[in-house]
Amino acid sequence: MAELTLQTLAGCGLAIGAYPRFRYDARGGGGVGRLSEGDSTGSQELCFDPDALCIPPLTWRTTRFLGLPLPPGLAITIHPERLEGSIDAATGAMTLRFAARFRFAIGGIYRAPDLIVDTMLSTGPVQGRRHQATGQPLDGDGQAQLVGVATIAPSGDPFLDRFLGLPDEALALLRCRFGPLAQDGRDLP
């Protein structure tokens, strides 16, 4: 098995319910995955250790909503639980199952129950009842855009559920770069 690095990039997005899309700069995140040998169709399995996977939080530094940064103190942290799937070496198409807990907090004043996200991220088109998007397969530089639509169940917090209109859909757009790991463990450029 080979190792493959994942680096999250700027130009990501997130939408939930009827709210407009958040613009999200996810630079600085990533992890190392294990890539299997290709099968007879050229498909390779890819699996990331969720405990070693880092996705930057949505804060006033990383996220803009309606052109404005999120209010200071408001943060949504992302705690991955699963990221695994397959890559088609010939076409650059990818499908990865992503499961995570999203934690919404306002300073030390308020912390909501986790929102559970479980979706298939794809480099192809995705279509939900409310949201749609099209990803981009891996290019020659190892960059791709993965997109996914997930149904978000109520959190159990009446304020948050009413504010977000849960249950409803969420849309994720993840721009990222994949590449080999150097022999000394550093990412290759």
UniProtKB/TrEMBL annotation:
Protein name, per record: Uncharacterized protein
